[in-house]
Amino acid sequence: MNENTGALTALATIAVAFFTLTLWIVTGNAVSLARAEFNAAHPPHLVVRNVWSPNATEDKPIEIEFEVINVGASDAIIRASSFEAHLVTSGTFYDIPLPTVGDPPANVLGPVILGPSAVLRKSFKPGGNWTPTHMRIGLEGQGFFWGGKILYRDGANQPRRLGVFRRFQVSTKRFRSVSDDEYVYDD
């Protein structure tokens, strides 16, 4: 036995190393699974709030301010985004094409990761100035509309999307939600 001590020690060391490696691999897999489970149970959730035009006055440039907020529990990785404004004076907003991000996708918000409770403040300048026509409320389905689409992913790389569509309310200078599943969605 004494003459084989070195060989036995070497074999025992190899066995311990093998079991340590196995433990390291299993622990790494468990951490990855736990992270994936957390991301699935606590996804990001983007909302758009505080959409308004504080300087909405005739002959001033049109500028629409808004906030994108992650009210979810994990990071939201914004991959593509696009926003549009339309003045509808005849027909209804249903004549406006659904917002898209284009191909290749545009990203007016920029490549950004919004952590939980993070707020991204942006402004949108569609060009042109406010006119008396913008200030008219008009018939239902008419008026000045702002909308957009945001494509983002969670930590598990699952795709998510947010569609927003708002109508300008002259008295408050705010854009109020339009309830229509084709234009407004979150999934």
Q: Secondary structure elements and their pairing?
A:
Elements: H1 5-41, E1 46-52, E2 64-70, E3 76-88, E4 112-114, E5 119-124, H2 132-135, E6 143-153, E7 159-169, E8 174-177, E9 185-186
Antiparallel strand pairs: 1-2, 2-5, 3-4, 3-6, 6-7, 7-8, 7-9
Walk me through the structure:
The protein is an alpha+beta fold. The protein folds into two domains: 2-40; 43-186, Immunoglobulin-like, CATH 2.60.40. It is built from two helices and nine strands; from the N terminus they run αβββββαββββ. It has helices spanning 5-41, 132-135, and strands at 46-52, 64-70, 76-88, 112-114, 119-124, 143-153, 159-169, 174-177, 185-186. A hairpin with a 5-residue loop joins strand 6 (143-153) and strand 7 (159-169). The radius of gyration is 27 Å and the shape is rod-shaped. The chain starts with a helix and ends with a strand. 20% of the residues are buried.
